[in-house]
Fold this sequence. Notes:
4-stranded mixed sheet, ATP-binding
Amino acid sequence: MNSEINFDKSPDGLIPVVIQDAETGKILMLGYMNRAAYDKTVAENIVTFFSRSKQRLWTKGETSNNFLHVQTILVDCDGDTILIKSTPAGPTCHTGADTCFDEVNQGKGQFLNYLQGIIHDRKVNPSEKSYTTSLFELGVNKIAQKVGEEAVELVIEAKDDNDDLFKGEAADLLFHFLVLLEHKNMDLDDIVAVLQSRHKKQ
Length: 202
């Protein structure tokens, strides 16, 4: 968290909480928390609000099982608004919609940023059980070799008609490419910036 939460700013002790999908970046809903709801959320890693209509703590999904699993909690610069990045267990809205703003919760490309964070963590906090860590320990030559091998395998699968195998090889290539970027101290945004620059010249 980047600021202390100040529940006393509001006369009723409630502050707004924005819920965002950690993978897609979509805004799922807006709710309110008091200190007790916040403490319960942190303790259980499942979002609990204070329901203004029920006048009690209300865990999202307590009847539908569509829980909001907490990934990250951020606090704004004034300490009076919370942003929770979560993984929804199902539709967020009581209407059955993906979000309370009636948006389709798609766009899994945002997950790549999440995956980059995990890859970075495996580099700075090595784990003996981690395949990613083992790649970093082998060095750039081995990582680059793996990218080349996965690219060849993708080309081979592209010539066949097995979509599942093709998607699997594409995922393997993308993963090892992200590992190579991390080893080179680069970010996927750096590559996107190059593509954007080329696009502007067209």
